[in-house]
Task: inverse folding
């Protein structure tokens, strides 16, 4: 499987051209769409999607879109893009009447980074793209074949709007060393590898990598690896009935004991308790089962 660099693959112009080349002959497939209104001040726990892209928009209220090691103050002119295996979460500011819309989708045959983490649009174009997300929501609720095809076509239109808005934005902030480390962790977190392996791939000592990584991101490489593994765990608890032991093995924690210890420390509850509180119902999945 090709590595999708967590921060930058090539130049912004190359990323935009990769998307346009893809859309000439193929299209994305919507797998989840939800509009959230008046959510409370609690966090959306950090998680990741192993094979899905995500687009999030926050039309009102105040909050933070977390894409570790970055964090963005939400803005009604901005869309936030999450690539497969990228850790992310959402935090609202209490009392701000925070609203958000999230679409997750597959892009079969596309193995590149999608545009940028934060895409800023002109206000009227952001409003237009949000209107298209609302239409996608209406089609997803129906969830028959024709409705899902229409939803996919609307998603193509949104991606073209975002591609156009991406052209003027500055390049990302991290050094090549940190980008390489993040990319390697993103690709290999499910193995039992540690930071020494990351440093070896990057061609530096573990201590040097830790110093540079912490200076640029505020996290140590080990802490970031730990967060990515927990992000995978949370995603499986959100969306699947996968056994806890299997999640532990697939996440890189290797044993249920290690997973439970790490999860309790992060979330003050067991994985089973978390699943019972946060399991996510998806109309598209239900329609496919039926």
Result:
């Amino acid at each position: 499987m090709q590595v999708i660099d967590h921060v930058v693959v090539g130049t912004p112009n190359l990323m935009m051209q990769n998307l346009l080349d893809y859309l000439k002959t193929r299209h994305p497939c919507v797998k989840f769409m939800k509009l959230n209104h008046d959510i409370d001040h609690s966090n959306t726990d950090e998680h990741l999607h192993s094979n899905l892209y995500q687009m999030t928009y926050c039309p009102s209220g105040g909050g933070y879109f977390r894409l570790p090691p970055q964090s963005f103050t939400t803005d009604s002119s901005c869309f936030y893009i999450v690539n497969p295996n990228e850790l992310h979460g959402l935090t609202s500011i209490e009392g701000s009447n925070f609203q958000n819309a999230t679409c997750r989708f597959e892009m079969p045959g596309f193995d590149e980074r999608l545009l940028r983490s934060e895409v800023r649009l002109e206000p009227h174009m952001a409003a237009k793209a949000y209107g298209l997300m609302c239409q996608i929501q209406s089609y997803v609720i129906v969830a028959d074949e024709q409705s899902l095809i229409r939803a996919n076509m609307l998603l193509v239109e949104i991606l073209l709007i975002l591609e156009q808005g991406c052209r003027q934005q500055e390049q990302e902030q991290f050094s090549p060393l940190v980008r390489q480390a993040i990319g390697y962790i993103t690709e290999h977190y499910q193995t039992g590898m540690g930071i020494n392996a990351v440093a070896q791939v990057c061609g530096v000592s573990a201590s040097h990598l830790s110093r540079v990584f912490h200076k640029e991101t505020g996290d140590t490489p080990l802490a970031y690896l730990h967060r990515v593994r927990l992000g995978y765990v949370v995603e499986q608890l959100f969306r699947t009935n996968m056994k806890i032991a299997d999640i532990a093995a697939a996440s890189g924690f290797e044993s249920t004991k290690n997973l439970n210890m790490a999860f309790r420390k992060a979330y003050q509850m067991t994985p089973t308790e978390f699943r019972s509180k946060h399991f996510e119902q998806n109309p598209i999945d239900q329609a496919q089962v039926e």
